[in-house]
Design brief:
Blueprint lengths: L1 H17 L11 E5 L5 E2 L3 E8 L8 E5 L5 E2 L3 E5 L2 E10 L2 E10 L5 E10 L13 H9 L6 H26 L3 H27 L1
Parallel strand pairs: 2-9
Antiparallel strand pairs: 1-3, 3-7, 4-5, 4-8, 6-7, 8-9
Pfam family, one: CopC
InterPro entries: CopC/D, CopC_dom, Cu-Rt/internalin_Ig-like, Ig_E-set
Keywords: Copper, Membrane, Metal-binding, Signal, Transmembrane, Transmembrane helix
Length: 204
């Protein structure tokens, strides 16, 4: 009987070891960025900083693509705790950029994602001081300048929605440890029932 019990435990251990278990530690998720996703900046961009919810490892890096698809590498990349900082030799010219980042999370997973922002370091279409009549036309063509708070609040709402969608997608793609625990319990119960039925038949 002892041999049967030992064999039972060995089979159960084999079943448990075959179950694909994920680390209880969550994947690293981007929590904050400078510049922020979807932001339009009216000042030169020389640095990019990304903050994550967990510590990231050395070797994590990033680069940007301009609107022509040209790759721009940073001159230096530093990793401190959960923060990745990249510096560029020259400030980024006006245009839309995609930030391509790749990090090695604390759980050992390699994660690659991207986001975009716009740099607008030149003020095109500004009123001509020599022709005051143009100022009225400029105001009519750009009604947002009358109430800049609206554009700011709309941008904040957009950023919040994108952040919530990102967190939701991360949670959906990472099943909870409780689910895996339930699977293990069900498999163990099924194995015990199977062996109990086999032993019962042998006794009969």
């Amino acid at each position: 009987m002892n041999k049967k019990v030992s064999a039972l435990f060995m089979v159960l251990a084999l079943i448990v070891s075959m179950i694909p278990m994920k680390s209880a530690e969550a994947h690293s998720v981007l929590e904050n960025s400078t510049p922020k996703e979807g932001a339009t900046l009216e000042k030169p961009v020389e640095h990019i900083e990304l903050s994550f919810n967990t510590k990231i490892e050395k070797g994590s890096t990033l680069y940007v693509l301009n609107q022509k698809g040209e790759k721009i590498e940073p001159t230096s990349v530093t990793v401190k705790g959960n923060v990745l900082q990249a510096s560029f030799k020259e400030s980024l010219a006006s245009g839309t950029y995609q930030v391509k980042w790749k990090i090695l999370g604390a759980d050992g997973h390699l994660i690659e994602k991207q986001y975009s922002f716009t740099a607008s370091t030149t003020h095109e279409g500004s009123p001509d001081t020599n022709n005051p009549g143009n100022s009225g036309q400029t105001d009519k063509a750009n009604p947002e300048t009358e109430n800049p708070g609206n554009s700011t609040s709309q941008q904040q709402e957009t950023d919040e929605k994108k952040a919530s969608q990102q967190v939701k997608s991360e949670n959906e793609s990472n099943p909870s440890p409780f689910m895996y625990g339930m699977i293990i319990v069900i498999l163990i119960a099924g194995a015990l029932l199977l062996f109990w039925m086999l032993f019962s038949k042998k006794r009969q």
